[in-house]
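Weekly structure sync - notes
Attendees: PM, LS, DV (DV joined late)
Agenda: review two folding runs queued last week.

Item 1: First target. Sequence and structure tokens pasted below for the record.
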Amino acid sequence: MSLALLQYGLISYAAIVTATVFSSPLSVFSLHPLMMSWTLATAAQGLVSFGTSKVQHAKGRQSHRNWVSLAQAFAYIGIAAITIAHKWTLKMNSNHGKLGIIVAGLILVQSVVGMTVDESRSKKMIQLHRFLGSLIFVGLAGVSWIHIGMDKGYMEKASVFVPIPFTHLLAQIGLGMIGVFSIVNITLNRLR
């Protein structure tokens, strides 16, 4: 149940960001929020792609690979877009930028760990892979939450597409819930 809420919440978040991006004049920068929101949505799909039976789990593993590979591609397109928009420099003067770079590095490490898990099936590597995945979700939610907190105008534009009062607050609460879900998941993974 909580995974389904996470999945549909992030798909909704990506839809709001997509509508907001396309409501404004497009630029290279526009790709950054678009791709990063799609990163969250496709990573969530990768998380829920595992089934419960052994047959579903085997098929789910390939689906997981496909979804998280797509999420990784979206993340790096988003990073490339922001780098190009800032004239080939990484803006490290904000918490949003600093945490974003850390999360980008974690995504790269996670892909290597994921390939190692595929080959070794080591319980320790599987635990590390789960831990890093949860940590990345916390990081992505944090980066998004920091941005929304910094740029209230962005979510005010989004409220045009979502006829709900307090869209900005709802987005912050939703991203906070992703963070809490991920922290709980990290804690539970340590116990397995």
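Item 2: Second target, run right after the first with the same settings.
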Amino acid sequence: SEAGVTIPLVQAVFDLIDWLDTKPTFKDEHIARKLVKARTELDATLAKEFAEPSEEEKEAASPSPAEEAKRAAKRKAEEEKLAGMTTEQQRKYEEKERKKAFRKAQGKMVFKQ
């Protein structure tokens, strides 16, 4: 008696499952393609970001010997200039340089709105 009621219901459920299985699943394939594409793009981006820099990039990043010599000469001239000043003059000079560096840093900041 109960089996007579449940058998047609179970049969209808199986028929529905079979019918759904025969329908094309464009959405699933489309989503799968998008996921694969997004993963490959992300992998490529991460690989590029974390890859070892090439020899050309290393050379471009490191300053040339002429630039290093120029910086060293500038640093040495600054030290000699400070050595010839009194402590009060040194304090004023360093304060002025600190303010100049602060203004320069403020000018480089970009605010997003």
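Discussion on item 2: The CA atoms of residues 4 and 104 lie 87 Å apart.
Action: LS to circulate a short write-up before next sync.
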